[in-house]
Amino acid sequence: MYRIASRVLPSIAVRIKNVPINCEHPTSGAEREMGLKGRSYLFEHKGMLFDTYGTYRPLFTMSGVLINLQAIFVGNDMCIKDIIEMQKLNGSTAYTTSLRVPIKWVIEVNAGFCDRNHISIGDRVYL
Asked: For 59-96, how does the pLDDT look when each residue is reduced to its tens digit (9 = 90+)?
C-alpha cells in the first residue's frame, strides 16, 4: 500500500521484460480521477496502473499533473499496443492511443522510462 498526500492506494507488482515497475492501483472513481495530480516527482520504477475494463481508446488528461509521463497501453492479450508521451499541465489534451483495439491496462511512468529500459510495442506485460 502507498500513502501519498493522505491517500492510501493498493500496489501491484508489474514486470515488462525483466524491468520491474511497482504500481499504485487506484480503484475508486475519485482515485482514478486524481491519478498522479499534484505530484512533483515519481521515483524510477514506480508508476500508476489503471484498469480500463477493455475500453477502446481510453482517455487520460494531464490536468494538475506536474511531471511529464509516458502512458503504456496494454491490450487484453497483455502485450503493449502503444506508448505515448504526455506533457505536464496539459489539461486541454485528451491523451489516448490511435489504435482501435481493446485496451485492458494503462501504466503511467516517468517520461523516457520505456527508452531507458528498452521497452517497446509488442513486449509482454506481467502482473
From this structure: 999 999 999 999 999 999 999 999 999 999 988 888 99
User: Nearest Cα to 44, choosing from 123, 127, 116?
Assistant: 116
Give the H/E segment covering residue 32.
helix 29-34
* Polymer length in residues for the chain: 127
- Identify the domain containing residue 74 by its residue range: 2-126
Q: Would you say 37 and 89 are in contact if contact means Cβ atoms under 8 Å apart? A: no
DSSP string, 90-108: -TT--B--S--SEEEEEEE
Contact between residue 82 and residue 121 where contact means Cβ atoms under 8 Å apart: yes
C-alpha cell at 125: 506485460
In whole angstroms, what is the distance from residue 95 CA to residue 46 CA? 20
CATH of the domain at 52: 2.60.120.1140
